[in-house]
Known about the structure:
By secondary structure, chain A is of the alpha+beta class.
Amino acid sequence: MQIPAEFSYERATSIDHALELLKSHGPETLLLAGGHSLLPMMKLRLARPECLIDINDLHELDFISSDGDRLRIGALTRHRALAESEEVARHFPIITDAERVIADPVVRNRGTIGGSLCQADPAEDLSTVCGTLRAEVVIRGPDGERTIPMVELHRGPYETTVAHGEILTEIRLPIRPGAGSAYEKVERRVGDWAIAAAGAAVWLDDGRIADAGVGLTAVGLDRGTATRAEEALRGRAPGDDVFAEAARLAAEDCDPVSDQRGPADYKRHLAGELVTRALRRATARALGQESTT
Amino acid sequence: MKVAMTVNGQEATADVEPRTLLVHFLRETLGLTGTHWGCDTSNCGVCVVLMDGEPVKSCTVLAAMASGHDVTTVEGMERDGQLDPVQQGFMECHGLQCGFCTSGMMLTARALLDRNPDPTDDEIREAISGQICRCTGYATIVRSVRWAAAHPAQQEAAAT
């Protein structure tokens, strides 16, 4: 039987209350959202907090709203709400792609975007998606709010720059013209973590790629996006030769490890192939030419 | 700590350790052993119960998190001696063999039909994709859910 080590439990009723609770409890205190990564880690004693602050009642952090220039997503928004949101699918189909392959529908009823990003698992999909989309994340602490680019959120595997006493409250995605995006994942079986996955976003202007985002999951591109691949895409007319070049650079820049999900050389090959596919689909979507079959 | 929730329409209050998982609270504190306890890693889905009408894996929810919420287990599916159409469907179409996954499967099916009274086979398969039947009886489970969709309970039929 897997049971977590002992801890004390608090339930926050508002963001300010959560901040107060964080302040009054020691550094071994963690926020509990969906719990579908944290509780399994606690059962295995990979995490052993002394106190959990349950933030599931903070409904003010459960929202998806657009203010024209950006889509704002509350940190407590469940995977399922993201998967089913038409607004999300319209602006950022990469999110819908990813949500369809994150765990399974029952897990998606509980898991949250903020929890996923703060877990900072190198195989987690939404971190790649948010990096690819140039997201910003809003972090609130006792002294107010700060906003940082998504690529600065993770310090490394399972480590973020959210300090003790702070709470990630919101994800902001810039809405820009000419956009298309896609996520491609290969897993051993339905619902598993990725062997490798790639996210791509393109912003087209007058037939050329004005800007591009390329991200990889589970293959050792721990921080940020594949910047050399993105650079290779900028200013070019989209096409398979350009995509292949970006894919080659992204595959070169990642650093997969051999494990039970496959050998490193296979994962590197897969990473490149998935970048190509994601770029193709992202571009087709930007041009309104995606095949519906 | 004190937890208080509604389980199958009845108030359930108890003093538990904060680390108590909902699955053990239901099985051991309340004696509702229809909820099964399987992989303990939120993979297999035998522990699925409904929380506020939505399926959740109760091995990965603390009893404390469920406090204040409305929980339904397989024991709460039957009403006034009448089986839920999903339960009836599993009987009619041989939706179970060993029965270990059955309570979770039926609750997920109930939640699916509440949202989507006439799901396609693909939608049924997607809904139960987080749950494992080691007898591999998926075809008959899908058929059972379809049977339930075709035979809604009287009050449901009257309401639609």
